[in-house]
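Structure ticket #2291
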Amino acid sequence: MKKTSNTKDQVAIVQIGNSSGKIAKTIHQALIPEIHTSNLKDLHVKVQRIGNLLIFHFKSNNTATLRALINSYLRWVITLTKSIDVINLKNSTTVSI
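Resolution: structure written out below.
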């Protein structure tokens, strides 16, 4: 990213822990397509997984865009976590007729 004298990149690092490394891996893999489309001229996202921890590195050229980017990814993580919980609950419940 090319910087000018009037531009200062805004950076944030967010760490999110999960109950298991398997869930963290699933969320990480599900976010890969979104990560590739978010890395535009003025937006950069990097996500790494260490065990059950997801570490997000966000960079933008302004605070408002950075905040929106972080909020979007947090919503993705929340939605994916809830979906995994529902799937796990459904798979652990048997219905007899």
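Closing remark: The mean pLDDT is 86.
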